[in-house]
Amino acid sequence: MAVRHVPAEFTSIQDAVNQSAPGDTIRVAGGVYGESVTIPADRDRLAIIGSGQENVILQGDGTGVGLTISGSGHVTIAGLTVTGFATGIQVDTDDNIIRDVTVTGCGGDGIFVSPTGARNLFLRVAATNNGADGIEISGVVNYVIDCEFVGNGDDGIDINASGNLVVSTQASGNGSSGLDTVGNNTLAVGNRFVGNGRGMRAVSGGGSLVVGNFISRNRTVGGEFVNAAGGVVLANEVNCNQGQGLRFDGGGGFKVIRNEVENNGAQGIDLAGSLSLSLFDDNEIKENDAAGIRLAGGAAGNAVRRNELNRNRPDLEAEPPADVRNVFDENRCKRSQPPRLCC
Q: Which parts of the sequence belong to the Right handed beta helix domain (predicted)?
């Protein structure tokens, strides 16, 4: 194994990659590098370490992919900025580490993980002002931790596969969702989804865990779950969104517990469509511009219990026959439609 230096020993990063063996490290000094870099097969455990995002710039001409990991795994990329490509970084393999990297000003996705990419770690990555998604993940079991996705044209984080994890990450000012996920068993823990088209959306998957997120000031709904099933929505702070705080449309089997849902422009929690077999327990729901909790007529078999509801319009609302097809117990509130739903 060897340590190779750009530009002291090699005039380009790609030249250094071509001359490297598995496990080598490439150290990149400050400068603007007008090239695309591809890491091919037989370079497992290669590391490309720049001297800092502000110092090392991989500069594109509006086309192609800036950096592609295409044939090797366990690769580390750190300490550089990728800008001005069609796609900033593409990952086609497993077990890679992308850390302390900025991807900005690309015409499409900032980062794309293909369906063949699994168990990749994205740590302290910033993807900003890209034309499509900040990061699009189509492979299973990838990890996005302590990252920032700001001002991208579509979603901050777009997940299209199962078992992916998003932790302690900020997604703000993105055109569509802060987080948009289609797939089973997504974990979203301790994130900030602020000022996006919507805070987050989960479609069709099951078993998602959404815990301890701050979801605020999004232009439509804070958190939306469409034809999804079997998830846990726990201890989130959902406030000041222009639409509903939390919206559940179809599907069922949710456990929605101990959330604070306040000052949203429509319902605090909206059970739309035919949602069924879900629990809405011990939530604090205040000062929303429509009902604190609303059940559409098709909602059935749900339990709404021990919630504290104040100054909503009204606090509880159940459209017939939802008022008799669901359980309402020990909800602390003053106004409901029909009147008998508060204790």
A: 66-215
In a domain, 273, yes or no: yes
**What does 277-308 look like in DSSP terms, one character per residue?**
S-EEES-EEE--SS-SEEE-TT-BS-EEES-E
Compute how many other C-beta atoms are within 10 angstroms of the C-beta atom of residue 60: 21
Residues spanned by the domain of 215: 61-341
Cα distance from N-terminal residue to C-terminal residue, the chain: 71
Residue range 100-140, pLDDT digits in tens: 999 999 999 999 999 999 999 999 999 999 999 999 999 99
Does the pTM surpass 0.90? The reply is yes
163 is a domain residue? yes
With beta carbons less than 8 A apart as the criterion, state whether 122 and 161 touch: no
**Domain total of the chain:** 1
Cα 67 from Cα 45, distance rounded (Å): 16
Is residue 106 situated within a structural domain? Answer: yes
Residue 82 in contact with residue 67, Cβ under 8 Å? yes
Read off the pLDDT of residues 300-311 as tens digits, 9 standing for 90 and up. Answer: 999 999 999 999
DSSP three-state, residue 17 = helix
Q: Is residue 6 part of a domain?
A: no
Instruction: State whether the Cα torsion 192-194-197-199 is positive or negative.
Output: positive
Q: What is the CATH number of the domain that holds 115?
A: 2.160.20.10
